[in-house]
Amino acid sequence: MTHPDPDDARHALELIEGDMLCLEDFARLCSVSTDWVLARVQDEVLTATWREAACFLSSATLWRARQMVAIERQFDADPALAALVTDMVEEIRRLRDRVAYYESRQG
User: Fold this and answer.
1) Which entry of 7, 32, 85, 98 is 20 to 30 Å from 92 by CA?
2) What pTM was computed for the model?
């Protein structure tokens, strides 16, 4: 297993701060091929923006894609199933945040 290059991490942070990632950078940050990303965009489980025939994905989508990659690899899951599980994880996270917020206000 290789360790991430600190320069790559800095470059990734600079890309994320710009909010939109080009297809190639997005795929690299997810450790997948551009074909993998485009297939998920075509299946409508990842959202992309097209500008002048170039594909861009938001940095917010990066977490979702990484979750999907992990689920697909770890469980040999179908892409649609990985997207569904990721949706459920996101919803659970939102619900936990809401519960924590309401509990903190009752303090």
Assistant:
1) 32
2) 0.77
**In sequence order, which ranges of the chain are alpha helices (DSSP H)?**
6-17, 23-30, 34-42, 59-75, 79-106
Task: Write out pLDDT tens, residues 70-101.
Answer: 999 999 999 999 999 999 999 999 999 999 99
DSSP element (H, E) containing 49: strand 49-51
* Token pair recorded at residue 52: 């002048």
Q: How many domains does the chain have?
A: 1
Q: What is the mean pLDDT of residues 28-41?
A: 98
Question: What CATH number did the domain enclosing 43 receive?
Answer: 1.10.1660.10
Q: List the domain range (segments joined by +) for residue 81.
A: 13-106
Q: How far apart are CA 78 and CA 68, in angstroms?
A: 10
58: which strand partners? 20
100 and 62 Cβ atoms separated by less than 8 Å: no
- Give the CB-side neighbour count of residue 103, counting CA atoms within 13 A: 6
Q: Is residue 6 part of a domain?
A: no
